Input
Amino acid sequence: MRRLLLVLPFALLPLAIAHAADEHDHDHEHGSLGAHEHGVGRLNAALDGQTLELELESPAMNLVGFEHAATTDADKAKVAAARAQLEKPLTLFKLPAAAGCKVVSQELESPLFGDKPDADDHDDGEAGKDGHEHHHDHSEIHAHYQFKCAAPGALKTLDLANIFSTFPATQKIQVQLISASGQQGTEVTAKAAALKF
Output
C-alpha cells in the first residue's frame, strides 16, 4: 500500500537541506529530513491511476496545542477533537466532488492516540528520563489515507485551506507531490493553500 511513497524521503532531502540553509541558519542542526518544527507540517501526495495516497505528518503542537500525553479531560477532549477531524479526510482535503474519490483506507498514528512509541523503554513513572529525552522524542501525528477516485482527471488541484482553518497553529505545509505530470516539491500557506496536480 505504501509503495508509492517509498521514493519520497529521497525526494524530500534536497528540499529539507535547501530549506534549512535558506531560512534557518540559527537552526542548522535541525536541517535533517525529520526536522520537527512547530507550525510546519509535511504532506506527501501520490496519484497513480485512480489511486490517490496522502500522508500527513505534523508535530502534535500544530494540531492539539501540546505534545505531552493527554492526562486532563480538557487535553483528552482536544486530542479526540483533532482525531475526529483527521477521520474526515474528504472534508479536510476538500477533494473535488467531480473526482468521485472514496476513502479506501486510513490510518492515524500518534503517541497521543495511545500508540506505543518505537522506544518503549520509558514508562509514565520515569518523568525525569522522559523530560531528558524530550528534545528528540517530540510527539508527531501521522495520518495516512488512500482513496480510489472514479474520475482522477477531475483532481486538478489539492486545496489545503481546511487544514489551516481546522488547525490554525499550522503555518505552512511542505508538500511533495507525485502524479502523471511528474514530481514537485512546494510549500503552501493559509494564504496560498491550493496546489495543482
About this structure: The radius of gyration is 17 Å.
